[in-house]
Every structure is written in C-alpha cells, then in structure tokens.
Design brief:
The complex is a heterodimer of chains A (635) and B (218). Chain A is an alpha+beta fold. Chain A has 5 domains: 254 residues, no CATH class; 66 residues; 111 residues, no CATH class; 77 residues; 112 residues, 2-Layer Sandwich (Heat Shock Protein 90). Helix content of chain A is 67%, strand content 9%. Chain A has a 5-stranded antiparallel sheet, covered by helices on one side. In chain A, strands 8-9-10-12-11 form a 5-stranded mixed sheet, with helices on one face. Chain B has 2 domains: 127 residues, Rossmann fold; 81 residues, Arc Repressor Mutant, subunit A (Orthogonal Bundle), CATH 1.10.10.10. Helices cover 49% and strands 14% of the residues of chain B. Chain B has 9 helices and 6 strands, in the order βαβαβαββαβααααα. In chain B, strands 2-1-3-4-5-6 form a 6-stranded parallel sheet, with helices on both faces. The termini of chain B are far apart. Classes of the chains: A alpha+beta (635), B alpha/beta (218). Chains A and B meet through α15, α16, α17 and β8 of A and α1 of B.
C-alpha cells in the first residue's frame, strides 16, 4: 500500500473518532463517548504504526478496527439527532442508514485479519473477501433503510418478502467473509516462521477473546439482556484488545508471555463450551426421562458438570498447550523427564547443561554454577567469568546463571521456565561439584602436610648433621689438642671426655637417621640397602628399575620397608626377610616379605597406611597366621 | 706433610688446622668453599687435601666433585673426604682407588688412626671409614667373593678400609705372617697376578667393593 494512502486512511480514522467523540460529548451520550474514547487507543496504535511502517496496510486496518465502531456510533448519534428539533449537520445523511450500518463495526477487524502481520493480502484471490463483506454491509443497510431504534426495538424500515432474502444473504456474506478471514490467519500461521507465528499468536489471543465476547453477547441477547450490556464487552474487545495485541505484536512481538496466556485462555474457553454442552445434554436427557417440571434435571446436570469440569479442564489445558504452544510444552516435558531420570538414578545431574541446550534449541547455551565463595564455574568445574545472564534461584539464593547463545525476551522466559523445571539437577550438580572440590582440597591439604613434614624432617636431619654434630666434633678436637700438651694423668681424663662425646655423636647420628635416613640422599636403593646393616637376621634386598621419586615418595617408600622389616623382627619371629622394590607403570611397588608367624590384622599398621594414602598410594597386608606376611605398597 | 684443608664450618676448620699442626703437619691453606680449594691446590701443590663433602657454593656434594677434579688434575695429591654421614654420590668412582680416603668426621678424634689414614692416602694408599665399607659390603656377597672364607672376608674388609697387614694382624689377633697367607689366598681366589704388593692390594679392594656395590643402588 502506498504510504500516502495509508496515512490518509489513518488520518480519516482519527478524524471520524475525533468527530464522534466531540458529538457524543455535546449530546451527553455516555456510551458513545466511551466507545469513541476507547477507540482513541486503537487509533493511537495505528498512528504509532503508520509512523513506524508507513507502507504497511496494518496501520490503517488497525486504526479502522476501532474507528469502525466510532463510525457506527457517529452515525447513530447523528441519526438520533435528526429526530430532535435541532439536528446536527449531516444528520439527514445518517438517518436512513442508522440501523443497517452495524457491520462497519467489524470491517476494520476483517481487513486486519487479512493483512496481518506483513500488511499484504495472503494472495490475490483474498481481495474478493472485502468485496463480499461490503456487499453484505450494503444488504444490511438496504434492509434497515430508514429504520430507527426506539428503546430496544427497531421500528420503521422497508417491508416485503425481499427484505428477509436480502437480509439472510447479507448476513451470510458477512459471516462467511469473517470465517474466511480467520482461515487466512490459520493459513499464515501454518506457513510462517517462528517470529511470524509469534505475532499471529497475539492476534489469535485477542480474536479468541473478542469472538468469545461476541458469542457471550448473543447469548445474553437471547436471554433478554439489554443491547448495550450484551455487546459492550465485545465492543471493548474489538476496540481495545485487538488493536493492543496487534500493536504490541508488531512493535515488540514478545513483550509478554503470550503463549501461556493464549493456551490458558483457549483451554478455559473450550472448557466453558465443553461443560456447557455437558450441562445442556444432561438437562435435556434427564428432562426427557423424568419430566421437566421437577428440579431434578438441573441439579443432576450441575452435579455431573461439576464432576467433569476439573478433569476436562486439565485434559484440555494439556491438549491445547500441546496444540497452541507445542515447542514450550515439549521443552518443559523434556526437562521434567530428565529431572525424574536423575532422581531415579538413571542419568547424571551433570548432563543438565546438554539437556537445557537441547530443550531450548540453543547450542550456544552455557550453564554457570555459583560457588560458595562467590566465584563461578562451568559444569566441569573450571572457573569462568560471571556472566550477565538469567539467574536460577533456589531457596532465595542464586545457584546458577544461564547464558543464552540466542537471546531474546521470549528465549529468556522460556529458559527461566526450563530452569524452574530443572532446578534440582542444577542444584545437585552444583553441590556435587562443591563436594568434589572440598574433597580434592582436603586431599591436597594432606599431601601438602605430608610434604611439609618430609621437608621438615630433612631440615631437622641436616641441622643435626651439619649444625650440632660438627660442633661436638670440633669440641672433641680442641680436647685432643689440649691432650697433646697435657701430662699422662690428665690425658686419661680427656680420653674419657672424648669417648663420651663420640657416644653422643653416635646417638645423634642414630636420632637423625630415625628422622630421615641420610642415605636417601644417595637414592632409595642405597637407603634400602642400609636396612640390611641394621638387622640381626638376613635381609635380602632386591632393587629393580626405580621410577623418578620425589623426596616425600622416597621417604614414604623407605618407611614402608623399614617398618615392614621392624615389624617382622619385632613380632613375626622371622628368620628371613626380603625387601623388594620395582617400578611398575610409572609407580613404585615396594614389598616386604617374611617367613614369620604372620597374623598382622588386615587394617593394622595404621600409621604406615596413612602415610601411603596421603600420596594416593595403596597398602596391602597379606598375613595369614603361620605362613609369613607380605606388606605391599604401591606409590 | 703439606696439607690443604677445605671446610666451611669455621669452628671445625680451625680445630682441624690446630690438630694437624699439633700432629706435626703444615697446613698450607685452609679454605671454606670448593672453588677456593681447587685454586689453592693448584697454587700450593700440597701432598694431601682434606675436604668436607658438603661445602659452598652449592652446599650439596661440592666437596665430592672437587675431590674428583683434584684426583684428575696433573699434580693429583691424595684426597681425604670428610663427611657427617655416609653420602656417596659423586665420589663412587674414587672409592677404593689409590690416593683417596673417605672418613666420617668423628674419626678425627682418634688421632693416631686419623694420622695414619692421612699418611696412607698421601702415599697413594686407601683409607675408607669402616661404616662406608659396611654400607657397601653388607650388600649381597657377590659372585667374585663367593669363594672367600669368613676369615678371608674379614681380612679383605680391613684391607678395604686401608689397613696394613701389621694393623690387620693386631686387629684380628693374628700374626703378620698369617695375614700375609690370607692375602695370598685372597689374591689367588680373585685371580690377581703378582705385580707389586700395593697394586694388587688396591685391585683386591676394588674388586671387593665393586662386587659388593652391585646392590648399592646409586
């Protein structure tokens, strides 16, 4: 549509609405004023749209969807005034068409349905529809020519057999063109892309509401409600809801969660219709059976309807959810199923990120978990920057954040819903991560402690050897120097003193050895070989290829061997001891065997076991009574 | 005897220098680190160097490495390594070779034995601390030594420590002739031909220590 045409039509809608409003105010006609006032909203939306997309037919259609109602009101006000002593200008023009003009109410809606949301007709052939509708309108005007409303009744107007025929034909034309317009929306929806569908959903929501109001109005009219009360909700729907929905859909198509509103509304409307049908059917059947005079029929009907209402609503909610908002329904179900699988122990909670990616259809989605210290980690536990993304909460605290690869307001709402469905696996994987980290930290702490102890032992040993011992020897040397200058009597004294010193030095060396055998400086092999020298029974030491060992591992291996040998000597009454060390797959295997009485409890040697476990090693004790023991450590 | 002393502990160094002087030696240089030691040995050409095994600059086995360098040098004076405890890295190749001794520091207090060991090494002999010999020998009795009797093993152990036949005799309560008989038997069993007593002794010691050291694990 040419921007000029579009602008002119929109301007005309503004003019009509303005005129209607002015006249209604002058005549103190509240209903008309309200209608025109409400139309201002839609016309405003049209104005916004025409500035945004001047070449689109949606803007004038939108403006006219409620300016139509203003037009009908304007005609009514003018026509009414023609019967007054001082009629408004143009009142005579409006007078004959007063009663028949009503289809103009929905003319804008019809066009809107046809051209929404891209401003073009779905195809050339659809151009016929407005024509048919116009014919219907002309027929209505013709059959109501010159008639007037008095109270709630229509008086005057043409008479004759043609009136009925033309009236029915006109109504058919109007009805069928409206139905076809709705069909065009369905066609568009089915062939449209995601955004298009989104926009059309808004229109569908408003249309469902409006049509419901229209139906309700007819029903109300049938039961004898006054005309204004019957059609005011419909009018409000046409004048306010429809334009609002369309305007929002186009300008910002996903402002609110239209999917849920739509599906919930549809479900309730269907439930309403369904339960009404149930009620009517039961009344009909019971009435036939027991007679209409008793109050039994409505009571039974009410009872059965009440019984069926909730299950029906639940079923319809699921069904319409699946139908109207299939994507969301499937996605939430996927996440819920995953959460259930996790609870059943069939899947691990750490898969949650992948599951969310699939459900959200967003491979770029990233789940980041909160750590207690305020930092953030990904699902594998690597530290990451805190993303400015959707927060997942549990018990009021943020437990995770989700960053979207494809971000939009709708995607945010969707993921928030999925996160609600999947918060348990998220929280569990976060807690598991925390637990793993705490465990690793504790283990690292143990290793650090063991390493520090080993370093401290080495320092102590060095201090004894390099600090204390030389001083003692130096003192001994001074004594010897002194001795050379002394007589023989004192010389004996000095000998005693030096012997004492030597004993002290030997004791010191033994002490230092217990802290850390200095032969470890020459390698584990040398240290193990030195075990032989200290044992009263034959100790066979066999040493194969050894892996690279740090100080802590060498010390631990040495302690395994020396404690093993000591144990064999002290408790096992062994006659032969074998010590064996060998590399295996980069680890060190150290074994002490004896031929003693055995019987070491399997969990004995606790100190040794702790030392080995600090290094993530294993200690096995095989010690059946009577056949010797094997102590085996893998480091 | 002209001696160079290298020891980083001042107390010990001073004590040692004094003791050596008292024993009638001349300490031509007393230093505290391995670098100065090498320089002074080259400059003063002593008959013997007494070297602490752990010294600056690295406080690791600097003394041992210096000992190897000194033994490899042209002048090649005898070297006696002193250590607080047995630590054989970097000097394994010297053990049992002529002109090298390895003693624990507290042996210094036995003046006569210490002096004797110094003289032996300066004269191209061997002096090994009994603890060193034990550490090496208590290993598996290797093939070469399998044929020796217990007494012959005892004698050889003392030889390895660097003792003379007289001293061994005194130690084991044997006459010097008996010791000599044992020695001949040992030489025979180890297949060492007579090419001068000192060399045969040394080679016997080397065989002893090498076969003993098969499980020394360094």
């Amino acid at each position: 549509m040419a921007p000029l045409t579009s602008r002119v039509l929109t301007a005309a809608a503004i003019g009509i609405t303005g005129a209607g409003l002015a006249l209604a105010v002058v005549d103190r006609d509240g209903a008309a004023a309200l209608t025109c006032l409400a139309a201002v909203f839609a016309v405003g939306c049209g104005l916004v749209l025409v500035r945004r997309e001047p070449s689109s037919a949606v803007a004038p259609a939108l403006a006219w969807s409620s300016a139509g109602a203003s037009t009908v009101m304007l005609v009514e006000v003018l026509a009414r005034s023609s019967y007054d002593p001082s009629p408004h200008p143009f009142a005579e023009l409006a007078r004959p068409i007063w009663v028949g003009i009503w289809p103009v109410n929905v003319a804008g809606v019809l066009v809107l349905l046809l051209v929404f949301p891209d401003g073009r007709l779905p195809g050339r052939r659809w151009a016929v529809l407005p024509g048919i509708f116009a014919c219907g309108t002309v027929a209505m005007v013709a059959t109501g020519w010159g008639a007037r409303e008095v109270g709630d009744r229509v008086v005057g107007g043409p008479s004759g057999s043609w009136v009925t025929v033309v009236g029915v034909l006109g109504l058919l034309a109007i009805g069928s063109s409206l139905v076809l317009a709705v069909a065009s929306v369905v066609l568009r929806y089915r062939s449209g892309d995601a955004v298009r569908r989104e926009q059309i959903r808004w229109l569908m929501l408003a249309a469902v509401l409006t049509v419901t109001c229209l139906l309700a109005g007819w029903v109300a009219l049938a039961v004898g409600a006054p005309l204004p009360m019957a059609f005011t909700p419909f009018l409000v729907g046409v004048v306010v809801l429809l334009p609002a929905a369309v305007g929002v859909a186009i300008v910002r198509h996903d402002l609110f969660d239209v999917d849920r509103v739509l599906s919930a509304t549809a479900a309730w409307v269907l439930t309403l219709i369904g339960s009404s049908a149930v009620f009517a059917a039961v009344v009909l059947v019971t009435g036939r059976m027991v007679g209409e005079s008793t109050g039994l029929a409505p009571t039974t009907a009410a009872f059965i309807t009440a019984l069926t209402l909730l299950p029906l609503q639940r079923y319809l909610a699921i069904a319409t959810g699946r139908l109207v908002d299939h994507d969301r329904f499937v996605a939430v179900a996927e996440v819920e199923r995953f959460a259930a699988d996790v609870q059943a122990g069939e899947r691990t909670p750490e898969e949650v990120e992948e599951v969310l990616r699939l459900a959200q259809r967003d491979p770029g989605l990233r789940l980041v978990l909160a750590r207690p210290d305020g930092t953030w980690v990904d699902i594998r536990g690597c530290e990451v920057d805190p993303p400015a993304a959707i927060a997942v909460r549990a018990h009021g605290a943020v437990i995770a954040r989700i960053e979207l690869g494809r971000d939009s307001a709708r995607a945010r709402r969707r993921i928030a819903e999925l996160a609600r469905a999947g918060w348990v696996p998220i929280e569990v994987s976060r807690l598991r991560l925390e637990l793993r980290e705490a465990l690793a930290e504790a283990e690292a702490g143990q290793v650090r402690l063991a390493e520090a102890t080993a370093a401290e032992r080495k320092r102590l040993e060095r201090d004894l050897h390099d600090g204390v011992q030389p001083r003692l020897v130096a003192t001994g040397m001074r004594l010897r120097s002194l001795q050379l200058r002394l007589g023989s009597t004192d010389s004996v004294e000095v000998d005693t003193a030096v012997d004492e010193l030597e004993a002290t030095i030997a004791e010191l060396r033994r002490l230092a050895h217990g802290i850390r055998p200095s032969r470890l400086d020459d390698g584990l092999g040398a240290a193990l070989a030195s075990l032989r020298a200290q044992a009263p029974v034959p100790v066979q030491v066999r040493i194969g290829e050894l892996p690279e060992l740090d100080d802590l591992r060498a010390l631990t291996a040495y302690f395994v061997a020396s404690e093993g040998v000591a144990n064999a000597l002290k408790h096992a009454n062994a006659a032969r001891i074998e010590v064996y060390a060998q590399a295996s797959d980069g680890r060190l295997v150290i074994e002490v065997r004896d031929d003693g009485i055995g019987g070491i409890p399997p969990l004995g040697l606790t100190g040794l076991r702790d030392r080995v476990q600090y290094l993530h090693g294993e200690l096995q004790v095989t010690s059946p009574a009577g056949t010797g023991s094997i102590i085996r450590a893998v480091l | 005897m002209r001696i160079v002393v290298a020891e980083d502990s001042v107390l010990f160094r001073e004590g040692l220098v004094r003791l050596l002087t008292d024993l009638g030696h001349r300490v031509v240089a007393a230093v505290g680190d391995a670098t100065s030691l090498l320089a002074d040995v080259a400059e003063t050409a002593p008959e013997l160097a007494i070297v602490d095994i752990r010294m600056p600059p690295d406080h690791d086995s600097d003394g041992a490495r210096a000992a190897v360098a000194i033994r490899d040098s042209a002048h090649a004076p005898g070297v006696v390594l002193l250590s607080q405890h047995i630590e054989l890295r970097h000097c394994m190749e010297l053990i049992g070779t002529p002109g090298f001794g390895y003693l624990l520091k507290d042996r210094v207090l036995h003046l006569n034995q210490f002096d004797e060991a110094l003289r032996r090494v300066a004269a191209g002999g061997v002096a090994l601390d009994p603890e060193v010999v034990q550490a090496l020998v208590r290993s598996q009795q290797a093939n070469a030594l399998r044929g020796l009797t217990e007494r012959e093993n005892e004698v050889l152990e003392l030889v390895a420590q660097g003792h003379s036949n007289t001293a061994i005799g005194a130690e084991l309560g044997l006459s010097e002739r008996t010791v000599e008989t044992h020695m001949r038997s040992i030489f025979g069993k180890l297949g060492l031909l007579d090419d001068g007593a000192t060399h045969r002794r040394v080679r016997a010691v080397v065989t002893y220590l090498e076969s003993a050291g098969s499980a020394r694990g360094t």
